[in-house]
Amino acid sequence: MYHLLKGLHEHLTRKEEFSVIIIGLDGAGKSTFLEKIKTLYNDVPGLSPDKITPTVGQNTGTIVLPSTILQFWDLGGQRGIRNIWHKYYGDCHAVVYVIDAEDRERLSEGWEVFDGVLANPQILGVPLLLVANKQDSPTSLSVDEIRHDYEDWYQRKMESARRTRYGEPDSGHDTAMRRERIASLDVMGISAIEGTGVRAAVDWLFIRVQNSRRDIKVSTGSS
Ligand SMILES: Nc1nc2c(ncn2[C@@H]2O[C@H](COP(=O)(O)OP(=O)(O)OP(=O)(O)O)[C@@H](O)[C@H]2O)c(=O)[nH]1
Ligand SMILES: [Mg+2]
């Protein structure tokens, strides 16, 4: 009887654990986003924005939702640190790419890096959310403007690839898959500082990771 009840209890309290990586250029606001998530979902608040310094390596954070644990990995975005991102691709259940919607000067650089992320076969089937941060700033591009800016950038890239002697470096198959991904790309606007849109982004992740086909960890209430 004890074992039966214990099994039932474990079944009812079991939680699936999913890993979410947060990537994007340095200064995009990834750590501010993660700390705001901690503040909104945990008893212990995350760091206030004035305490956040550029990330060298990674920061982590965990939130508990109904039957689900989301483990976040906020990875440093500085040029020299970006080469560690790929080490996380194999095990993550979702990717959040944060773009600084206020920094027009670095949008192209942001798309260049984003394109490199999309090209990675390890995350081809993984839910990916593009987050346009800093919506509190009056000079920020809106979600629609960000989407158009990326599409324009992509068109320009494709045209210049067609003009080069060796043509488009990717195989046609690869390009078609990437185009499909771009067409169905979800873009959400947030202000990591003020917290607007942050819950909506977490809801998106919560729903999308449930359909993940990757291995998941399960923890029970008794462990
Ligand atoms: N106005 C505004 N500023 C923000 C927002 N989010 C972050 N910032 C500012 O942007 C700067 C960079 O924020 P971080 O969170 O450290 O950026 P990061 O993406 O983690 O940067 P790295 O760790 O270097 O990769 C800081 O000055 C933040 O206060 C936002 O929503 N609105
Ligand atoms: Mg950071």
UniProtKB/TrEMBL annotation:
Gene Ontology molecular function terms on file: GTP binding; GTPase activity; metal ion binding
Record InterPro entries: P-loop_NTPase, Small_GTP-bd, Small_GTPase_ARF, Small_GTPase_ARF/SAR
Presence of the UniProt keyword Magnesium in the record: yes
Binding site for Mg(2+): 31, 55
Record's keyword terms, sorted: GTP-binding, Magnesium, Metal-binding, Nucleotide-binding
Pfam families: Arf
GO cellular component term of the entry, any: Golgi apparatus
A GO biological-process term: Golgi to plasma membrane protein transport
Residues the entry annotates as binding GTP: 24-31, 77, 133-136
Superkingdom to which the source organism belongs: Eukaryota
NCBIfam families: small_GTP
Family: Belongs to the small GTPase superfamily. Arf family.
PANTHER family: ADP-RIBOSYLATION FACTOR-RELATED PROTEIN 1 (PTHR45909:SF1)
The protein's name: P-loop containing nucleoside triphosphate hydrolase protein
Species per Swiss-Prot/TrEMBL record: Hypholoma sublateritium (strain FD-334 SS-4)
